[in-house]
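Re: Re: ligand-bound prediction request (bumping)

Still looking for help on this. To restate: I need the protein modeled with flavin mononucleotide bound, output as structure tokens. Inputs repeated here so nobody has to scroll up.
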Amino acid sequence: MEFTRLVHERASTRAFTSDPVPVADLREMARLAGRCPSVNNSQPWKFIAITDKALLTAMAVAVRERLESLLPAKADAEAKRIVHQVIGYSTFFDHAPAVFAIATRPYEAVADRVLLNSPVTHGDMNRLRGQPDVQSLGAAAMTILLAAQDMGYGACWLSGPLVARDALEAFLRIEAPWRLGTMIAVGKPAHVTAPSERKPVQEIFEVR
Ligand SMILES: Cc1cc2nc3c(=O)[nH]c(=O)nc-3n(C[C@H](O)[C@H](O)[C@H](O)COP(=O)(O)O)c2cc1C
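Reply:
Sorry for the wait, this slipped through. Here it is.
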């Protein structure tokens, strides 16, 4: 699909048909995401495709339980509605035929080589540089969304489930130094989702 059209037509998909996503397609999405730029070309990512329904269900249950423990159980209807919505947007991935869990790990920065015996840590430098590890992961995640769209699938980026990061890492056997970075649900869209509104370009673009 032509790039401009691809960008315009992409919309987060949260309802999927039961059609499976062939492993070859998931591998191709991961391959394309692996082409992304990353800090120091560290490629600090692993793309774990989850298609096991029981595993996805267990993960969603863990996320729901964590959110229920985090969000106050208020009696009023509006608070209940919000909690219900947050849980829904964080757990719908259990209905997706495939979910990417993108794992990330600390990268070795060039500057790290001069930090030995210095009070400044890798973490300090990473924060000062605007978390290039997270920026790299974002590039990879966006590429999966576009690759999925290009291949006729719908997808949705999910950070909500990370509230249960420890439990999800245990389910997925993600071990240090790897961490669960983000997740993306993928599948054939159950219906066409209209692209959502965006700010006009004159509001988001300036030249200095
Ligand atoms: C970093 C990030 C985290 C997101 N987390 C969630 C999430 O947990 N659950 C969800 O339903 N959508 C999530 N989204 C999708 C956004 O809600 C969506 O991209 C936004 O509303 C714009 O809609 P569009 O993708 O259809 O253009 C996330 C998007 C990004 C970029």
